[in-house]
Specification:
Helix content is 75%, strand content 0%. By secondary structure, it is an all-alpha fold. It has a single domain, classed as Up-down Bundle (Growth Hormone, Chain: A). Helix 3 runs antiparallel to helix 17. The relative contact order is 0.15.
Length: 460
Amino acid sequence: MSRSQPPGFTPTGTISTSTDRRRVVFATVVGTTVEWYDFFLYASAAGLVFGQLFFAPAGPGIAQILSFLTVGLSFLFRPLGAFLAGHLGDKYGRRVVLMLTLILMGASTTLIGVLPTYEVIGVAAPALLILLRVLQGISAGGEWGGAVLMAVEHAPKAKRSLFGASPQLGVPLGLLLASGMLALMALIAPGDAFLAWGWRVPFLLSFVLILIGYYVRRKVEESPVFVEIAERKEQTRMPIVQLFRKHALLVIIAAFVFAGNNAVGYMTTGGYIQRYATNPDGPLGLATADVLGAVTLSAVSWFVFTWIGGWLGDRIGRRNTYIIGWIALLVAIIALFPLVNSGSLALLTLGLMLLTVGLGLTYGPQAALYAELFPASIRFSGVSISYAIGAICGGAFAPTIATALVDLTGTTVSVTVYLAIMAVLGLVATLLLRDRSGIPLGPDHEAEQEVSPIRGLSRV
């Protein structure tokens, strides 16, 4: 059947000009950076100030656990965001979802910046904080799938992993920006001033960043794969139903690929290391600004190795890049707490930067890996829901689990064992998948895409 192609698109479903490709890459990096700045800003603040400001009546130890629990609570609502975004993204397009998630995340973060504390409005303060964090979780659950599909579905076949790394780069950039802003405010408003008002400034800055992200994303065209599906009026009526009817096992395996990376990554992005290293009643008691500076440096390293992971994914395949990454991550996990517990800021920084080698190599190729696992008609639902479930199994309660393990055992060795188990689960899940690098992504190839990527299975 012949049909007209959208202006500017080639029959292979990729943008025909390098200018448009650069615009897509820039827009996905900027948008995801703003989204994850907001998300990580909350996690860092949960480790540094929220326990004292919103949960103090529970007592110092319990207050901190409750604060970390609010970080994890938002992950329980990521699947809701993924379900909503997957349904909308597979029926109405990737672009509209990206605009909605950006606005929701920015509004929630800005409101946290003006939220009264427990001392001012009592129990309503933690209740409102939790509500705003839930909205952040819904936004994060919908954001990732749309961003990675815009990047991967626009990309040339030989550079999908590198293009797909562009929204992944927004994660370390978001961490860098969040940690950098908090570190700056800790220097400008140290001690009680940081607790009183300094932490609020980075949250209020989100309003400006959202306007920038919205402007940039408005300039990007819809994914060519979805344009082709829409032209043919072949959108799936109930994409989520189709996903779980045919691909439930694949969703679970893909989720565990991400869970291993996410659990380890949330030692810093979830605020655990920040709290552990700066706690005045803990074994280290390092200065807040110094530790935030170390986290900021590690974010730079994470950015570099995420880009390298995306580049390697096109050279040696997604699966091989992951396997190298898991090995590097296991080595870094074993080294992490001996370096942190040395009490040396330089060694703590080294430990965090070593961790980012494996984190980057198991994150850079993820967008391409996920996009190539699912058929075009349900791809948004597949990648979003797999990612959301992986986040729940991985990073959602990693800081809470780590805090509880140290309280129970009195040693960080228990945290090392926990993180190593999660990394091994990620490695096993990776080994269960075939490498589908370069598989056609368009709707004309759904029969090929329906062949199971799970090793040992020939069909869904």
